[in-house]
Each structure stands twice: as C-alpha cells, then as structure tokens.
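new request in #modeling-help
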Amino acid sequence: MVKRRSAILVLEDGRTFHGESYGSVGETFGEAVFNTGMTGYQETLTDPSYHRQVVVQTAPHIGNTGVNTEDDESDRIWVAGYVVRDPARIGSNWRATGGLEDRLGVEGVVGIAGVDTRALTRHLRERGAMRVGISSVEDDPRALLERVRQSPQMVGADLSAEVSTAAPYVVEAEGEHRYTVAALDLGIKRNVPRRLAARGVTTHVLPAGSTIDDLLATGADAVFFSPGPGDPATADGPVALAREVLSRRIPLFGICFGSQILGRALGFGTYKLGYGHRGINQPVLDRATGKVEVTSHNHGFAVAWPGHGDGPAGAVVPDQVIDTEFGGVRVSHVCLNDNVVEGLRAVDVPAFTVQYHPEAAAGPHDADYLFDRFAELIEGRGPDGQPGAGRNHSEGRTNA
Amino acid sequence: MACPPAAHPSPERQPSVKVILASADVQRVVDRIAHQILEKTQGAADTVLLGIPTRGAPLARRLAARISTFEDVDVPVGVLDITLYRDDLRRHATRAVGPTQLPPGGIDGKRVVLVDDVLFSGRTVRAALDALNDVGRPASVQLAVLVDRGHRELPIRADYVGKNIPTALAESVKVTLVETDGADEVRLCGGTR
C-alpha cells in the first residue's frame, strides 16, 4: 500500500489534530460538524445540506461498503472536507461499484484519516461548531490557522442558490398520478421526490429563485420547501415566497431548511444551535400522537419558539397555540435530547413542516408517514386527518 | 495461577491459552477508557486516579498520560495498597505490604477513580473502599478495570470496563503489562475450550 501523505486538521480555536491524507490531496475549509450515523456515508457525502461543511464521522470505520451508483442523494459530493478515524482498506458490498477513497479523489474532496474523532467530536460538542481547515500540503498549523480564521462563517451564509438546480425538472409519479407538487429546490435530496412519487405525486423541482408564478405555472396542488444548507436568516426570497403560498392557502410542506423558512414566514426567529443535530438516531416526540420516532437529522439551525428562548434551555409548553399573521401555529414535534423545535403545524392554513428528515436516506423510516400526511393535506383533509384546513385550501385554490 | 505464554504451542492435554487482547488492543482499550473518563467526569475536573497494586498502578499512570494527551488535563495519580484490608488476610500467607501514595492534593472532596486490571469476585475493590476510608473522604468513587471477568461475590460493578470476558470459574485471566511484565497482553487460561 502506498504510504499516505501526512495531513493536519486545525480548528478555529487553534486545536490541531494530525493524521494522514484521505481522498484528494490539497487544502479545504468549512464549518466542522460531526455526524453520528454508523451507516449511510454515501448519502451523507452527497447531501447538499452539507455544502461548505467539513463532516467528522464519529463511526470509526468508514468506507466498508464502498460506493455505488444508486445511493447518491444528488449528482455530486457536497461536503467541503471529510474526517474519518479508520478508513476501510477494502470496500466490499454486492452493490458496490467502486471504493470510497477513489470517489473522493475523483471529486476532489480533501479528507483526513487517522484522526482521534472521539476527541475531536467532544471538542466540538463542548465548544460548538466552528470553522476548520484540513491540509495535506501545509505542514505549519499556525499558517493554516491564519487561513481558517479568514474563511467564511456559516452564520449569514446564503447558500441556496449554490446548491439549487439550474433548470426545472420533473419526477413523475409511480403508478397512477394523483397530485402535482411544486418543490422549491434549496438543496433537495433525491429521496424526497422518490417518497412523493411512491404516493402518486408528480414533483416539479424548481430552482431556488423561482417566483410564485413559476410555482403556480406547474399546476401544482401543493408546494414543498426542501432541505438545504446555510443560514435561514438570509433566505429572504424563499421566505417571501412561503408567505405568498400561505396567503393563497396552498398546502405547504417543508423539511429541515424548508421548516425554518416556514418558521420565518410565520414570523418566528431562527437561531444557530451549539453543535447541531446530525445523525440517524435522534429521538423526536410527535406531540399529536405521543409517539416517539427515531429520526434522521441534519440541521445546524432551528426555529426559535416564543418563550423558548434562544436555546434549548426552556421547554416548549404543550398545546400552546401562538397566533400569527396566518392564524394559530403549534409545535408538533420536539427533539427529546434537547427540546429543540422539530416540527410546526399551522391550525388555520394547510401547512406543516418538520425539522428532521422523514425521507431518511440515510436513516430509519419511522417518520415516513409524514408523506402520507402531506398527501392527506393535499386531498383536503387537515394535518391531523381532520377536515377543516383542507376545505379552506380548496377555496384558496380556486382563487389562485 | 500459572498461565504459560500463548506464544508456546501448547501440546494436547495442556490447559488451553487464548490471547484475548494483544498489545495494540490493550492500548486501544486504555485509550477508550481515558475517553470515557473524560466524558463521564466532564473533563476530569477534580478527579484523582488511584491504582491498586500491582498492575492497577501502571494502568492508572497510563490513563492519566492518555487524558493529558487528549485534552491537556493533568489528572493526579496515586497508588492505594489494599493488602491489609483483604478479608482473606487470616487465611492466606499475605503478600508484602506496599506503599500507599496519595497525590499532593489528597483525595478529600475529589472524585476518585480506582483502577485495577481484573474485576473478579469484587473483594479487592471492597478492600480498596475500606482502605480509602482510612485515608480520606472522596466526594465519590468510581471504578475502572481493564477486564471484567464476572463471578462477583459482592454487589460491586465497574464504571469503566476495557473488556468484558465471559469466563468459567475454572479459567483464569492473566494480564501482563510492559511496566511490570515486559509486554502488554490479556490471556485466558485453563478451561476446556
């Protein structure tokens, strides 16, 4: 085996880790975040929500199953850098079409291996997500630290346009066509239209800069706001669009970044979490049913609930309905680890969102029912399956 | 109990010897315990490591060294001799009494982590708790062991376990360390496997 080049990883606060080059040789910067998933590295790497982030895998063995042509969540690797403990020397899986390191090399993704990812993760957990640099061409940590401190911050980053599709495209329904959904691509994952298609939904995926007229021109029965990277406070365009959708009472479903967009459209704030939720075993309580789901997460920002403060310190009051410009809104889901708002449901307009990933990929399918809820919402039943909001929405649709 | 090194091919009818942890495994396990101590004690603040002779003492020093490498925290290390506190003192010829060395800051009000190589009946740890009683009043006491082989005779458990080894009572677990025996290894000897 070829001896690897030495590489260094330097955090914004000066902490340095030494390791070996993994993937492409070079230098990269981004926000250091850790992902606790023990599987699904290919989905993680190709998830646009990781744009400009350097992902630290807490699972020590990465690359065991190689890469294949089926599991990509977008058409490229999006992570800015990749940090692993112990890369597999040989990937092995019946679906594999290549090795992970080769793929990283081909796509020019700079990584580092042999790092004590446990100590690194603990550091990020105690001190919060911060900027990081990885280099296999620079030997001097101080020089790299200078460049890390000059790299852009995640707060205030408007990244939707960078990850969005350039031209609209359509994902056809499987089997009988039931509904049409216009999806605003802020960094959509392939599995979202796939989950919708399985329910007879044809999805028109539209660029991030689309207008309400573009959305309506698709003949959509409902609108979907996708997950994606960046700071929701910069997403003025999508927020204004969500307000248009709400005021026309078109059914709206948002995931992750899309959830933060809806939160802002309803007049709530958003804030950056200390170190975010990234992994595939996060417990979330569905407050409507009292059931707990184990879910896939990838978010560094969250919706600030009034009285909940800027952090997870206070608990969200159960059954509290807050009046907004678009009627009552309640928190439908909370994360049981830290009480962060994980889902919003409008009472008077047909709209609901979740902060986590019901489409999984990677992750458990506990929350798959949310796509059924969306279909029911389009059908004219409320988010709880009750009539009400849906009736209003059909009126809204005739107006539109 | 005599336990020959595994390197010698053992002819039939000799007790079997199986290497459970080789040198690199022992190091990895020590690294993990060091990480766990850091995580469970919020950065090892106000924590003292006390090794139980013979092999607990070098293990405690290794843990402190690893903690220092990981987080740049210096954890005080000491040695707690328990010979005179054993409950079988009157039944066996005792081993030589060793020194108890407490770190300069003492253990009063500190979180003490006792460190030993093998947790078996629990009687050594019980003796260590008695010994602690005579040298100070820690805020709390935890236990880290390289190997937990089961067969407890007292209600004692470890907070940090390097490796759980299910054993038969007739088997013996032998830990060797570079500091005391020249090599890092954990062997399981005897039995019928």
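bot summary: Helices of chain B lie at 23-40, 56-71, 123-135, 178-181.
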